[in-house]
Amino acid sequence: MFETFYFEHPQDEARRVNVGAAGYVAAGLAGSLYVLWKAGWAGFVAAVLPHLLTMVALIAATGVTSLLLPGTQQLVVLAIGVPALLIFQSIYMIRIISRSYTDRGWIVHST
């Protein structure tokens, strides 16, 4: 589920990009900004809308539920829903990074 990726440039083996466990944390917390840093503008454009939708879902899960749900149900939403959204976002952002490199012809290795 949380694979480590190594992207190598096809002509220059010295150019290599790694995405590991810390990358998943950064992708979950920073979303499209992490994609911009790792994959450039092409990946960033593809990541902006999903990142914004995930942020809206996080705001709804934290803010709106505090107005509508009793305390124990809020705790369940915060303990399960928020981490699930961040995990979904991190996996999706790493997938965008991987697709961005493969579209440019880079060699992808995963472990």
Features:
111 residues; mainly alpha; 3-stranded antiparallel β-sheet; 3 strands; elongated
Structure description:
This protein has one domain. It has 111 residues and is mainly alpha-helical. The protein has four helices and three strands; from the N terminus they run E-E-H-H-H-H-E.
Report the strand count. Answer: 3
Q: Which quaternary structure do these chains form?
A: single chain
Rg over CA atoms: 16 Å
Count of folded domains: 1
| Mean of residue pLDDT values | 90
The major pleated sheet works out as: 3 strands, antiparallel
* SSE pattern: EEHHHHE
Query: Low-confidence spans: pLDDT under 50, at least 5 residues?
Result: none
Proportion of residues in β-strands:
5-15%
* Distinct helical segment count: 4
Helix/strand class = mainly alpha
Ends apart, CA distance between termini = 11 Å
- Percent of residues in helical segments? over 70%
